[in-house]
Design brief:
The chain is α/β, with parallel strands linked by helices. It has a single domain, classed as NAD(P)-binding Rossmann-like Domain (Rossmann fold, 3-Layer(aba) Sandwich). Helices cover about 45% and strands about 15% of the residues. The chain has 11 helices and 8 strands. It has helices at about 15-30, 50-60, 75-90, 115-140, 150-155, 160-180, 200, 210-220, 225-235, 275-285, 295; strands at about 10, 30-35, 65-70, 95-100, 145-150, 185-195, 245-250, 250-255. Strands 3-2-1-4-5-6-7-8 form an 8-stranded mixed beta sheet, with helices on both faces. Strand 7 and strand 8 (about 250-255) form a beta hairpin. Helix 3 (about 75-90) packs parallel to helix 4 (about 115-140) and helix 4 (about 115-140) packs parallel to helix 6 (about 160-180). It is globular. InterPro entries: KR_dom (IPR057326), NAD(P)-bd_dom_sf (IPR036291), Peroxisomal_Beta-Oxidation (IPR051687), Sc_DH/Rdtase_CS (IPR020904), SDR_fam (IPR002347).
């Protein structure tokens, strides 16, 4: 039986790459799909109605049902229209995949205010606007699922991505809060950090031979490898899974830990700057995590 039979799912950034593959698989698994894509560049410029409509045409071509939406998710009214199209066209909304995003990579001391503001507006605020619009419908009907796309750039770290990393860690906090706040309404919320070759990853130039080899590894991680987890998390069988962070790397799927206290130290008389430096920091030093990038942690070749 199709995993999403009779469900209505909205996928943002679904005109290309990962979002496209999720929209196609969701439709093949029985869902009616709102295919949202502004059709802009990877830096957030311009608009093109073509990509969203092409995915809709492909879905209809194999007997599925879908509608195109070209709204800008960073505009609250545009985000509302995505959920509005689902309800107006199909009568309900059951799942939301927050996938749309841009890159504005700059080394931190060269990052402009516009680089920061534009990326946060789309990659974090946009997720809030879409989620908030859907949450009202989910609460009324007593069910719903969110899948939000985060990144190991935020979970672990990467060069030149302070804006992107901050937004993607913000997405984790957003998802966790939704999971806590909406559990009573039978709504679950989870995150996926994808490894996949896309327009976004193609914009990051390799700086050395090690980086070039990493790019070649990423090229083997096609967007279709991400879609099964996203679709599975939207299904009724995954309703009890919430507040989790997953990663997909070709045929590997990971479950991430979340921050929890690992050491403590108490002084009944309280602390001073001197005692912090002389006592606390040396005691904690062996438990400090080392600075790494995503590529340092996921250093082996995927199979």
């Amino acid at each position: 039986m199709a995993k999403l039979k009779d469900k209505v799912v909205a996928v943002t950034g679904a005109g290309r790459g990962i979002g496209r593959e999720i929209a196609l698989l969701a439709a093949r698994e029985g869902a009616k799909v709102v295919v949202n894509d502004l059709g802009g560049s990877q830096e957030g410029d311009g608009a093109d109605v073509g990509p969203a409509q092409e995915v809709v045409n492909e879905i209809k071509g194999f007997g599925g049902d879908a509608v195109a939406n070209t709204a800008d998710i960073s505009n609250p009214q545009g985000a509302q229209s995505i959920i509005g199209d689902a309800i107006d066209r199909f009568g309900r909304i059951d799942g939301v995949v927050n996938n749309a995003g841009i890159l504005r990579d700059r080394i931190f001391h060269k990052m402009s205010q516009d680089d920061w503001d534009t990326l946060i507006r789309i990659n974090l605020n946009g997720y809030f606007y879409v989620s908030k619009a859907a949450a009202l419908a989910f609460k009324e009907q007593g069910s719903g699922s969110f899948v939000h796309f985060t990144s190991t750039s935020g979970l672990i770290g990467n060069f030149g991505q302070a804006n992107y990393s901050a937004a993607k860690m913000g997405v984790v906090g957003l998802s966790n809060s939704i999971a806590l706040d909406m559990a009573r309404s039978n709504v679950n919320s989870n995150c996926i950090a994808p490894f996949a070759w896309s327009r976004m990853t193609a914009t990051i130039p390799p700086q050395n031979e090690e980086e070039r080899k990493r790019v070649e590894r990423i090229k083997s991680m096609t967007p279709d490898k991400i879609a099964p987890l996203a679709v599975g998390l939207l299904s009724d069988e995954a309703k009890e899974v919430t507040g989790q962070i997953f990663a997909v790397r070709k045929n590997e799927i990971f479950l991430f830990s979340v921050p929890r206290p690992i050491r403590s130290m108490h002084r009944s008389e309280g602390w001073t700057p001197d005692s912090i430096v002389s006592d606390l920091l040396p005691a904690f030093r062996s438990s400090f995590h080392k600075m790494e990038r995503s590529g340092d942690v996921f250093s082996w070749d995927p199979i």
